[in-house]
Write a structure and sequence with these properties.
- This protein is 0% helix and 13% strand.
- With 71 residues, it is mostly beta strands.
- The relative contact order is 0.28.
């Protein structure tokens, strides 16, 4: 589990790798403040559903690895 707003003070973060963490859900505000994030790896978790607004703050996201989940 990742707390909402966990990354809000990391506004210059470019790459975030969260693969193989057994994440089953993500709060819609978990990526709040990551406006410069380009690469997000959620590969091989246990995510079953994603909120439709989960990526709303990821304005520069170009690469999303999300395979091998339960979506």
């Amino acid at each position: 589990y990742i707390e909402p707003y966990s990354f809000e003070n990391l506004e210059n973060l470019y790459k975030l790798v969260l693969q193989r963490n057994s994440l089953s859900s993500l709060d819609e505000n978990v990526f709040y403040g990551l406006k410069k994030l380009v690469y997000l790896d959620l590969h091989q978790n246990m995510i079953e559903i994603l909120n439709e607004h989960i990526f709303k703050d990821l304005l520069n996201l170009k690469f999303l690895k999300i395979r091998r989940n339960l979506l």
